[in-house]
Write a structure and sequence with these properties.
The complex is a heterodimer of chains A (144) and B (583).
Chain A: E1 2-5, H1 17-25, E2 29-30, E3 37-41, E4 49-53, H2 61-65, E5 71-73, E6 79-82, H3 91-95, E7 102-103, E8 110-111, E9 129-132, E10 141-142
Parallel strand pairs in A: 6-10
Antiparallel strand pairs in A: 1-9, 3-4, 5-6, 7-8
Chain B: E1 7-13, E2 18-24, H1 27-30, H2 33-44, E3 58-61, E4 75-80, E5 87-92, H3 96-101, E6 107-111, E7 118-123, E8 126-131, H4 140-150, E9 158-162, H5 165-168, E10 176-178, E11 182-184, H6 189-195, E12 198-204, E13 209-210, H7 215-230, H8 235-238, H9 245-251, H10 273-280, E14 281-285, E15 295-305, E16 309-317, H11 319-325, H12 334-347, H13 351-366, H14 372-375, H15 384-396, H16 400-407, H17 409-416, E17 424-425, E18 427-428, H18 436-444, H19 455-461, H20 468-486, H21 500-509, H22 513-517, H23 519-536, E19 554-555, E20 558-559, H24 562-580
Parallel strand pairs in B: 1-6, 7-12
Antiparallel strand pairs in B: 1-2, 3-4, 3-6, 4-5, 7-8, 9-10, 9-12, 10-11, 14-15, 15-16, 17-18, 19-20
Helix pairs in contact in B: 2-23, 11-13, 12-15, 15-16, 16-17, 18-19, 18-24, 20-23, 20-24, 23-24
The chains are: A alpha+beta (144), B alpha+beta (583).
Chain lengths: 144, 583
């Protein structure tokens, strides 16, 4: 199976094209926040950029924190998000040690990377890549 | 939301520390950006009151395509300028346009005056004003650091706009710094903020809205994105950046050097875009929503003590800053240029106006028109130390001389003499000595900016002198096209990507079919509206003077034809009067 890795963030120019692509193509929204990947500067733009994105934990602390089993562990690491069971409590985002899950400010709806790679093609500097790791291939996002 | 027919505008009263959201205007008529800003000034501005009257609005506007397509990454700032006491616009990117889009703020209007230096924070479920009087007098970078520490929420998805000492001290060409490397520059937006005690504002934008379900939107996005990233269309902005113009203009005898005493720099190799790239380019960065990455950041090393004690600074550069604080000041060393730019940035001064003003001051100093008792430090071409100190005096308005020079080169020249060599075309000149068309286009242009129309392109593409009729047709049509872009609000670097037809496709794909259908006629109306608003604040095209220095210039085409330039200026003034005539 393949997972997303932000391997070359020192090349990042902070254009947010990846986040916009995820929101647009995966979540069908226009946003730089409603996305499985978010770009932030650490202490101002002069310090460069970092990607906040799922690191494929197994077991994942967000899954353990989810009270409704909307988030379930994906074999090999990472998670599956089942929006139909999600109650927008935000526990997953609070549990993630890497701040990889975004919450919509109005609804608390969570956004987590599903390792589909849609963002990779929109990075102008090849900061992102899909990396092969051991485990079954699957990419899922279930509708609410 | 984008599909709605009117704009969502936040009007914030700094005197009361409260704001309200209103629905305003008609998208099919105003489009957004430039059109929305002009209409908001008509609504909230007081045409005959001074720029620093607390009632005057400080306006920010985005457009219907902001955040929805690549390079739709600019915001328009509109205000009555303290430089010429007339209505004007300034444009900037950074993260502000996207932050406004995702805070659902199409327009932001600050009115009134806060009692103490303040910071306003607006976002989803958030609207606050904080007393930040302890930041008074802090430079732009220190202010940014403090604000980031004070208000940690929304890192990455917020924009921090602030002023430095120059804005607080009401220097009429103080700028607003946007997210460190971008600016609402030139005609004094920073001073207007200073007059309102608005030290900073922060927009948190973390919301979203549904993407159009049609395939048209996704396909068009992909098409535009590919054009921008995979073709040569934008490579000049990404590679050397606009700094590449320095060598190009020097080669065709069109680089303003030493207060435009020359158009070829004998030591240009020290300050070309190529030199910056090879020796100082640290990295590039981008405005949010733009994959081009045109912001070039240079590394400035400074040994501050013996035993190899170094500090470093990161300073953004472009053609215009290098021209103004480099070639115009006779600088022959790229690091020296960065040092002057860094000082301007700290003070929150427009680098172009500051550089050109100091170029005039240097020539006036050489001629003995002004003395060291006025300049405090000796000003000599290619001497970085004096310029860095002078920039600090400009920001601090240390004495009468710097107070007058801060009012603009023409004001200082009127007082001390030396008006013939004040390089002012409505405001301090931009970095092109290409010929009659450019000089007229900046002198008469709506913003007195090199970006109002492509006058420099007309000079370069025309064999001999541009004919007056052809020049006028070009000025009016090119301005209309640019007004369309600045109403969307696109970066003007994308002007070859976004034709009217592509913009119409983009608008229709967003469900704004009515706006798309009316785009061309609405942009003509917005073009007229902007001029009408400018005229209402006292603009008289006949009052614009092109100083003698510009008719002494020699380019690759030979000497400037002063009579031809004057005739072109008079004819363009007539066209502008027609554009500004009330409907």
């Amino acid at each position: 199976m393949k997972v997303l890795r932000a391997s070359r963030m020192e090349r990042c120019i902070g254009c947010d094209s990846c986040a916009l692509a995820c929101a647009r193509t995966v979540h069908r929204e226009i946003s730089w926040h409603a996305s499985g990947i978010r770009i932030a500067s650490s202490g101002g733009i002069s310090t460069g950029f970092e990607a906040k994105v799922c690191l494929n934990c197994d077991p994942a602390s967000c899954v353990a924190a989810c009270p409704t089993e909307a988030l379930i562990q994906r074999a090999g690491g990472g998670v599956k998000m089942r929006y139909k069971f999600c109650i927008n409590c935000g526990e997953c985002a609070r549990a993630c040690p890497y701040d990889a899950i975004a919450l919509a400010p109005e609804t608390n709806r969570p956004y987590v990377c599903i390792h589909c790679g849609a963002c990779v093609a929109f990075c102008p500097h090849e900061c992102l890549e899909m990396v092969e790791i051991a485990g079954p291939a699957e990419t899922e996002l279930e509708a609410a | 939301m984008i599909g709605e027919s009117s704009f969502r505008v936040l009007v914030f009263d700094l005197g009361r520390g409260q704001g309200k959201f209103i629905r305003f205007g008609d998208k099919t008529k105003l489009l957004g950006g430039s059109g929305l800003a002009a209409a908001l000034f008509q609504e909230y501005g007081v045409a005959d009151a001074p720029a620093f009257d607390p009632r005057q609005p400080l306006i920010f506007a985005i457009g219907p395509l902001t955040g929805c397509f690549p390079l739709m990454s600019k915001a328009v700032c509109a205000f009555k300028s303290p430089y010429h006491e007339q209505y004007t616009e300034s444009h900037a990117g950074g993260r502000l346009p996207m932050a406004m889009r995702f805070a659902h703020i199409d327009g932001l209007v600050f009115v009134g005056r806060a009692e103490r230096p303040s910071c306003v924070i607006a976002g989803i479920r958030r609207l606050e004003m904080h007393d930040v009087h302890a930041l008074a007098g802090q430079d732009v970078f220190s202010t940014g650091k403090h604000l980031r520490r004070m208000f940690r929420r929304s890192t990455g998805h917020r924009s921090i706009v602030r002023i430095g000492p120059a804005g607080e001290n009401l220097v009429p060409y103080a700028c607003l710094n946007v997210d460190t490397y971008r600016h609402f520059g030139r005609l004094g937006a920073g001073a207007v903020a200073g007059s309102k005690n608005l030290k900073a504002f922060i927009i948190n934008g973390e919301s979203a809205f549904p993407a159009p379900a049609t395939k048209t939107y996704a396909k068009l996005f992909q098409k535009v994105y590919s054009q921008v990233v995979d073709t040569d269309m934008m490579s000049k902005y990404h590679s050397l950046g606009t700094a590449g113009n320095v060598a190009v203009l020097n080669k065709i005898q069109s680089l303003p050097v030493r207060n435009l005493q020359m158009t070829v720099h004998p030591k240009v190799d020290g300050i070309t875009g190529e030199t910056f790239a090879k020796e100082l380019l640290l990295r590039k960065t981008a405005c949010a929503g733009c994959p081009v990455g045109c912001i070039h950041v240079g590394l400035l090393r400074e040994m501050f003590a013996s035993d190899n004690e170094y500090l470093y600074r990161q300073v953004s550069y472009d053609h215009e800053p290098i021209f103004a604080c480099g070639a115009m000041l006779g600088m022959s060393d790229a690091s020296g240029v960065l040092a002057i730019l860094d000082e301007c940035e700290r003070q929150g001064l427009d680098v172009m106006s500051a550089g050109v003003a100091l170029a005039w001051a240097t020539e006036a100093f050489e001629r003995g028109v002004i003395k060291e008792s006025e300049t405090i430090v000796p000003l000599r071409f290619d001497e970085v130390k004096g310029y860095c100190q002078a920039v600090r005096h400009l920001g601090a308005r240390t004495n009468d001389f710097y107070r007058l020079l801060g009012q603009g080169t023409a004001v200082a020249a009127k007082h001390y003499g030396g008006a013939d060599y004040a390089c002012v075309l409505g405001q301090e000149m931009a970095g092109y000595a290409t010929g009659e068309a450019f000089f007229v286009s900046q002198a008469m242009g709506f913003r007195h900016s090199h970006l109002d129309t492509g006058g420099y392109t007309l000079d370069q593409k025309t064999e001999g002198k541009p004919e007056i009729d052809k020049a006028l047709a070009f000025f009016v049509d090119d301005e209309r096209k640019r007004v369309t872009l600045t109403s969307m609000v696109s970066c003007l670097f994308a002007r070859n990507v976004y034709s009217d037809a592509i913009l119409q496709e983009a608008l229709a794909s967003m469900g704004l079919e009515d706006v798309a259908a009316n785009l061309v006629s609405a942009s003509e109306e917005v073009q007229r509206l902007r001029w009408q608003v400018r005229f209402s604040t006292g603009f008289d095209p006949a009052s614009v003077r092109i100083p003698k220095r510009f008719s002494e210039v020699k380019t690759w085409k030979g000497p400037i034809d002063g009579a031809h330039m004057a005739a072109m200026q008079a004819a363009y003034a007539d066209e502008i009067r027609k554009l500004g005539a009330a409907a």
